[in-house]
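2 proteins. here.
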Amino acid sequence: MKECNICYETKVEKILPCSHSVCIDCYDRLQGDNCPYCRQPFRESTVVTEESTDENLQRIMLYYFNNQLAISQLRMNTVQENNNRRFRRFRRFRR
């Protein structure tokens, strides 16, 4: 939570597509669908709350972490298989 640049109160923010943010109360009082800072038009469906961005970030990080673990395990298995093949070839020549 940051201080709103319109009313100067610290509240949960709405983040606009142009990446400017306003508090929920100021967002409800906006006239039309234009950013109060840069006047860029936006649709309501593209506005997110600060809380939802934190949840999305956590979800993305968890997904990435789980996939990285899976990729690491796959790489480790591949290296182990390659090492086993090399050892088998070496053992054939020693006999």
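next one coming up
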Amino acid sequence: MAFNDPNDASEDGEYTHPPEPLSAEDLKITTETVNFLQYDTGVDVRRLQVQVRSGHLHIQGSVESREQKKIIEEALKGRPGIVSVETYLTVLEFTDF
């Protein structure tokens, strides 16, 4: 049976550990990805969060259209240093009634 230090427990009693610090490579990939999305695809990155851990990219937030979501998903495939991509994007497409 593993011993868990009571000082590691969160308020709900779950045992948590601080996340590993970003490696220099993950930080570089994160910065390059945000710059690429902003300047090469024209996507507004202010509503996006990009995280990279060991080359696994997670992107979440909202985009203005289904087209922008598809542009992001396609643009990130095969980018240097990215092992996998998981997207959690909400489309804010509005229609006139």
